[in-house]
Amino acid sequence: MRIGRWSGKFKGGFDALVLAPFASAFNLSVMTAKKFYDWQTAGGTDDVMLMVNALEGADIPWCAIGGVAVNHWAAEPMVTQDVDFVVATDAIERAVAVLAQAGFRPEKLKWSVNFT
Fold first, then answer.
1. Does the pTM of the predicted model rise above 0.90?
2. DSSP bridge partners of 107
3. Are the CB atoms for 15 and 52 separated by under 8 Å?
4. Parallel, antiparallel, or unpaired: how do β-strands 62-65 and 113-115 relate?
5. Which of 19, 58, 88, 94 has a beta carbon 3.0–4.6 Å from 33's, enabling a disulfide?
6. 34-64, pLDDT tens digit by residue?
7. Which residue has the higher pLDDT, 43 or 24?
8. Can you point out the beta strands (E) in the chain?
9. 20: burial class by Cβ within 10 Å (0-12, 13-18, 19+)?
């Protein structure tokens, strides 16, 4: 495992990455974790896994931060509509290129890059 990587190659699927903490707080037997996040983000589940697969496929170390990371560790889940992540400074341009090739549109700001 490399420093900054979620946990080696990511194998947990979307539920393990983002929504496991919601299972105890919401009745997910009626609405699956994927359906919940899709409802919350207007269909963002596939985008999250596309991002994960693109970065992992290019062997770019990354780390989830923000609400997704909070939900991984917190006792109380937090609703989030995006995925914040970081890569090492020497991998930024490569990550932007890989995610653009995967279909994301980068918007370069002074201190960050947003993808839609």
1. no
2. 114
3. no
4. unpaired
5. 19
6. 776 677 667 777 888 899 899 999 999 999 8
7. 43
8. 62-65, 84-87, 106-108, 113-115
9. middle
